[in-house]
Every structure is written in structure tokens, then in C-alpha cells.
Amino acid sequence: MSKLRVFIVSQEEPFYIPKVIRYLVEHQNENFEIVGASRLQPHRKNKTMKDWLLERTQIYTYWELFITTCFFIYCKIGFKILAKMGVDNPFSVKHVYAKNAINEIETNDINSPFYLTKLRELKIDVVLSISPPQLFGKDLLNLPNKVCLNAHGTLLPRHRGVFGSWWMLFNGDKEIGTTIHTMVEKLDAGEIVWQKEIPMPAQPTQYAIAYHTKKIMAVGLVETLNKLNVKSLDVIKSPYQESYHRAPTKEQGRSFHKKGLRVVTFKNAKLTLSKSF
């Protein structure tokens, strides 16, 4: 039995995605191997980095922006300097790939003909989507020999769309979790093949929820790939009611904080700035 040839499409984000990808790399086995990957900028294709930042100013307080800035300085600047001295950088997706000799294919458009041609050369069995800011087109969805799988940090079909960890907190959910599903052209749709829930953590923040759902995600992806190489994946009927969200508005951000909810606190550094799960 040959290994599944897996390709990852994600974004370059310092806090959680490097932990997920490191877990996947460390748990490669006789069932799957990562043969390549692409990192995208965190803003969507029709947006700029300025738009990405403005979205967050709608829902962060000035204090939360200050905390996030401190976290970013620690990860993006501090460890970038240390990396030049040979220190391992746990907060960079690029560094995880380089350290493990995983072939990176660069692109600004995952649906471009040139990019798809490069992917076909790798004879990919599974494409894993981990929080990429671009939608998969029909040609990319049909490219792998087996399937495109998306890992979504909510209990689908509840909280389809973006800012899932924020909406779980805003809506007062009693449980959080992650879903892995096959991909179709409709966003966060397709057949659910893996799902796990846990209780909402004590004193939750958006950042704490993101940590826990990404931790669940890492485990679920390994379990799903191991199973897929042995037999077909079972389709799961989710008990959750469907909802869809865009980025929160400024008014919703104010309402969020009036409820006593928080995006991030300095206490979240223990989870957010941990080197692994």
C-alpha cells in the first residue's frame, strides 16, 4: 500500500497554523507524506493587507490591538532575528517547511493555470486546505487523485464563513470544535468526514478558542489521512444548525465588548505563544 501524497494550502500566520503544520509533519507515517505546500498572504485576493488590518480594528479594543501587536513583535521580529543566529523559529510556516525540506510552490493565485500545472506534476492524492484566504476553483477541486479536504475551526454547518472563533463567542455557544469536510465550490460545504466538539473553555477569548480548535484540527487531520489511505471516509451527519457569517461590523464589535467578551488578553500568551500544542 503506497502512501497518500498530500499537498497543503494555507496562509502565513504566526500563532496557530505553524503548530498545525508542525504536528502534521511530525506525524507523517506509512499512510501519508507531505509532498509540497503553498503559503498565501493572510488577506483575501481582492483585498490588501490594509483591509485585513481594518477588519480587525472593527472588533478589537485599543488594548487588544496593543496586546496583539506585542504578540506579533515577539513572533515576527524577535524570532526572525534569532533565526538568523540559527535558533529554530516556531512561529513561521515558511520555517517549518524549510526545516523539513518540504517543497514550496509560490503563487498569488491558487487557481491560475500555471500553478495548477505545477501541482499536477506532483501527482497529488489529497489537497489539504488550512485557512487559506482564497477560494478553490473547479479545476483545483478536481486536481487531486482522491479529494480536497478543508479543515474548518467550527462545528459545521454552524458558523460557515469567516471569524468562526469570534462568532462562537459572540453567539454564546456552549461547545466549540473543528470540522473536516470534502470541498465543493460552495464555501464550507461538502460532506463532513470528521468532527469533534469540546466544551467552551473557562474564561474564553477569541484567541483561546482559536488555539483549542486548531489543536483539535491537527489531530483530526492526521486521523483522517490515516483512515483515507486504508478505506473510504464515512460521511457524518452534523447535529448543528446552519449559519453563515462575514467579518463582524464595528457595531457588532462594540456589542461584543459590552457583553464583557474579549478577543485577547495577555493571559493568552501561554497558549498563543507556545511552540507546539
Automatic annotation (TrEMBL):
Classification via InterPro entries: Formyl_transf_N, Formyl_transf_N_sf
Q: Which Pfam families does the record match to this protein?
A: Formyl_trans_N
GO MF entry, a single one: methionyl-tRNA formyltransferase activity
The UniProt record lists the Formyl transferase N-terminal domain at 115-223
Give the range the annotation lists for the signal sequence: none
Q: Name one GO cellular component term.
A: cytosol
Coiled-coil boundaries? none
Protein name as annotated? Formyl transferase N-terminal domain-containing protein
